[in-house]
Amino acid sequence: MDKRLEKLEQMQKDMQEQMQSQMQEQLAKIQQEMEEQMMESQREMMIQLSQLLVGRMDKGKIPMENNKDPQYPPEERCKWLEEKVQAMEGIDRHHGIDAKDLSLVPDLVLPYKFKMPEFKKYNGTSCPEAHITMFYRRMTWYVNNDQLLIHCFQDSSVGLAAKWYNQLSRNRISS
Questions:
Q1: PANTHER family annotated for this entry (predicted)?
Q2: Spatial CA neighbour of 37 closest among 160, 129, 140, 158
Q3: Which of 15, 23, 40, 47 counts the most CB atoms within 10 A of its CB?
Q4: What count of other Cβ atoms lies within 10 Å of the Cβ of residue 54?
């Protein structure tokens, strides 16, 4: 009987190690994709911002440094630039979208008495691998609940990292 119990315990340990290894591989893949998309997004924003700053034409407007026309006072140029930055940051709100469509895991059922652990927010400037490792460690009790991990991960980031995560569609997430 003891040998059976030992064998079961060893099997359980092996399965846990295998699942942990698979989770780490998945997190590494997500991290790599996240880094690539964030870098691309940052490159695009820098290009757009540099184009605005050097005064390239946009929607028929006169370039800013050559603009001596009184119909474009500095206040309007500042407002126009602010609108462009907000558009690049994706400040626009979701209109006409069902709230359920905004969730990456719409069928999630939270465990009984689940309390969200406290996380240090990832902003894209620190080590993403360390952040994912710490997230995983704080969620140790729920490593077998992919939907919950996906749902909770959104609360562990801010800024561009959160923007990237929140723009993902369900078909980009495998659970």
A1: CCHC-TYPE DOMAIN-CONTAINING PROTEIN, OS04G0172440 PROTEIN
A2: 160
A3: 23
A4: 10
Task: With CA atoms as reference, report the closest residue to 121 among 167, 82, 77, 163.
Answer: 163
pLDDT for res 128: 87
Each residue of 53-105: pLDDT tens digit? Answer: 665 444 445 444 444 444 556 677 777 777 777 766 655 455 556 666 666 77
Tokens of 91: 């400040």
Instruction: List the structure tokens of 51.
Output: 């184009």
Token couple for 2: 């003891």
Cβ 153 vs Cβ 171: under 8 Å = no
Instruction: Please state, in angstroms and rounded to a whole number, the distance separating the CA atoms of residues 118 and 10.
Output: 33
The alpha carbon of residue 35 and the mean position of all alpha carbons in its chain are separated, in whole angstroms, by: 10
In whole angstroms, give the CA distance from residue 76 to residue 83. Answer: 10
The residue assigned the tokens 């959160």 is 162
Structure tokens at 42: 């940052």
Element (H or E) spanning 128, and its range?
Answer: helix 128-138
The distance in angstroms from the start CA to the end CA of the chain is 37
